[in-house]
Amino acid sequence: MRELPTAGMVEIKDVAREAGVSTATVDRVLHDRPGVRDATMRRVKDTIERLGFQPHAAAAELARGRRQRFCFVMPKTLNLFMADIVEQLGAIRRQLAARRALIDVVETDVFDADALAGTLEAVGPRYDGLAVVALDHPRVRIAIDELVESGVVVVTLVSDIPSSRRAHYVGVNNIAAGRTAGTLIGRLLGGRAGKVAIIAGSLLLRDHAERLFGVQQVIATEYPGLTLLPALEGRDDDDDNRVLVSRLLAEHSDLAAIYNIGAGATGIGDALIEARRAQEVVFIGHDVTPQTRRFLIVGVMDAVLSQNPGREARSATRVLLALSRNEPIIAEQERIDIHVIVRDNLP
Amino acid sequence: MRELPTAGMVEIKDVAREAGVSTATVDRVLHDRPGVRDATMRRVKDTIERLGFQPHAAAAELARGRRQRFCFVMPKTLNLFMADIVEQLGAIRRQLAARRALIDVVETDVFDADALAGTLEAVGPRYDGLAVVALDHPRVRIAIDELVESGVVVVTLVSDIPSSRRAHYVGVNNIAAGRTAGTLIGRLLGGRAGKVAIIAGSLLLRDHAERLFGVQQVIATEYPGLTLLPALEGRDDDDDNRVLVSRLLAEHSDLAAIYNIGAGATGIGDALIEARRAQEVVFIGHDVTPQTRRFLIVGVMDAVLSQNPGREARSATRVLLALSRNEPIIAEQERIDIHVIVRDNLP
DNA sequence: CTGTTAGCGCCTTCAT
DNA sequence: ATGAAGGCGCTAACAG
User: Fold this and answer.
1) Is the pTM of this model over 0.70?
2) How far is CA A276 from CA A249, A270, A279, in A?
3) Which of A28, A74, A291, B238 is 20 to 30 A from B137 via CA?
4) Is the CATH code 3.40.50.2300 the one for domain A68-171+309-336?
5) Is B174-306 assigned to CATH 3.40.710.10?
6) Which of residues 35-94 of A touch B (CB under 8 A)?
7) pLDDT tens digits for range B140-181
C-alpha cells in the first residue's frame, strides 16, 4: 500500500514564505505574468516544485470570477440525433450555471453555406466559445477562421472542417465509421455475392461523404464478390428513403445489403418489410433511435453504428470551458468512439 | 436565437434580501439543515425558485474546505486491462489534487476472499470512499456492507456484488457482453454448423460467469446449428490457454468458433495460427491490448468486446467524489457501455 | 429559531 | 520588480 504524503495541503503562502517573496509574486510566477526578475522566478519555481504545490482549483475559480458564454450552432431541422444533443444541453446548462457559464443554442440552415456563415458572423462575436455543426464550405471556413482570429474558441461538432482553424473537433472518425460498416456488411454476408446499396442524406455533408468513402474502400478492396451501387441521396427523409429503397428492391433481385449513412432509417426498414426481404438483406445504419432500436430487436437491422449524443455534448462543453480558460484538455478523455450496436448491447 | 436571462448572477445575499432573512438562513434552507421555521423555509425556497438562484460551486467547495481520501483496491496480479486502469489513476490523481482529494491504490489477491475481505477491513476505515474489484463471496460482501454501514462510500469496479450494499457499480453489463459475443459468433458463422468453445479465466469471477451465461443463452436458443462445448478455465494465462486450445483443435475438427471470456488471448491466437486454422475459426475476445489489436488487424480475431479503462477509472472517481459529498450522480453519464471493436474501429 | 461575522485560498488592484 | 490588502460567494461557529 502506497502512502502518499498529505499532498495538496501546501498553499501559496507556504511557497511565498519558503521562497522569501510575497504571495503576489508567487501568483505572477504561477501564471507566467511579467514583472518578475529571472532569478526570483527560478527560485519560486523551484520551491513550487520542491513543495509539490498544487493550486486549489475552486479558490482560483472563485477569485477569478470570470463568466463565460458559449453558443451551440445547430441544424434548423433537428433529426433525432441532433435533437438528442440539444436535449442533453438542457441538463448541462444547469451544471454550468453552478460554474457561472451559460450556453445558448441557435438553429440555422447548416446546408446553406451563406446562412450558416451569416449566423456565425452575427452571433459569434458575442460569445467566448462556439460549437458548430459545420458544413465544409469555404465561406463557412472563413467565418470560423475570423472568429478564431478575434479570440473566440471554436469547436466543430459531429461534422468537421479540418482545414479551418477550429481548436478541436468533437465527433467520430467518419472514414473509420464507413469502413466499419463495410467490414460488417462483408462479414455478415459471409462470402455471399450480391449488390450493396448506399443511402446518404447529402454528400455535401462531410460526415456523409467520409462514411461513403470508408465503406467504398473496404467493399471494393476486400470483398470482390460484392458490387457497390452508386450512392443515393435521400435527404435523411423517411419518405424519400422509402421510395428509393422500394425502387432498389424492385430493380435488383440480388440486393444483398443496404448501408444507411444518415438518418431516415424508418423509410428504409419499412420498404424492406413491405417487400418481405427484411431478413435476407443486411441492413446497417447509424444512431440508436426508437426506430433503429426496434429494427434491431426484430432483426430488420443487423447493426447500428452510433455515437453517444450526450457524450458529445458534454465533451464539447468541457473543451469549450477548458480552452476558453486557457486550460489544457485531456485528449484521451475527449475522444469520441464509434459504437457498434447489435441487438444484445443496446444501451 | 434564444436569449437567456443573465442567469447565475443571483447570489445568496440577493435571496436573503428578497426573502427578508439572513444569508445564514438561506444557507440552512439550501442544505435542509434544521433550525428553520416551516414558514420561513417555504418563503426562502420560493424566492430561490423565483430568482433562479444557483449556488456557485467553486465558492461552496472553497468554503467547505473538505478533503477526501479514496482508495482503489485492485488485483495483485494486474493483467493489461487492470494495469491500464491503474495507470490512468496516476493522471487522475493530479487533477484531484487541485480539488483537494487524493487516491491511493492497494493491490491484493482478489481471488482469495479472506485476503480481499481482510484488506477491505484493514484499509477501508481510513478512507472516505473505496473502489473495489470485487470477488462475489459472502465474506467480501459482509466486509463491504460493514464499511458502508460505517459511512464509507463503496463502489464496485469491473466485477460487481449486486447483493451487497455498495453504492454503485462501475462496469459493463456482463450478461449483455456475453450475449453480444454469442450473437456475433452466430452471425459471423452465417448459418454454418459446428462447435463453439468457451475459454474463461475463472468462473468464480462474477464477470466471467455472467459472460458465460450470456453467450450460452444466445447460442442455445438462437443458433441450434451450433453446439456449445463445456467452458474451460485457463486462469487468464497464455500458456494454459495455448494448451487448452491446441487440444480443442485436435479433438474437434469441426470447431467453428472460440469465445475468450477473459485475458490470455495470445495463447489462443498462437494455438490457432500454429494449427493453421486461424482464418476459418471465428475468434472473439475481450479488451483491446497490443496483442488483440494485432490479431484483429491480421484477421486472427474477428471482434473484440471492450470497455474503456480510462473511462471506468474516471467514472469511479467521479462517483466517489460526488457521493462522498452528498451530491447526485448523472446515471447516464456514468453508464459504461460495451464496445464492439473490429479491425476498422480500433481506437 | 435567526443573524453576525470571520474565514476558505487565490487573484488583483494599488502602492511602493 | 515586489508587497499589502481587499475581495470572490459560500459556510460554519458563535451569539442572541
Assistant:
1) yes
2) 10, 10, 8
3) B238
4) yes
5) no
6) 54-59, 61-62, 67, 91, 94
7) 999 999 999 999 999 999 999 999 999 999 999 999 999 999
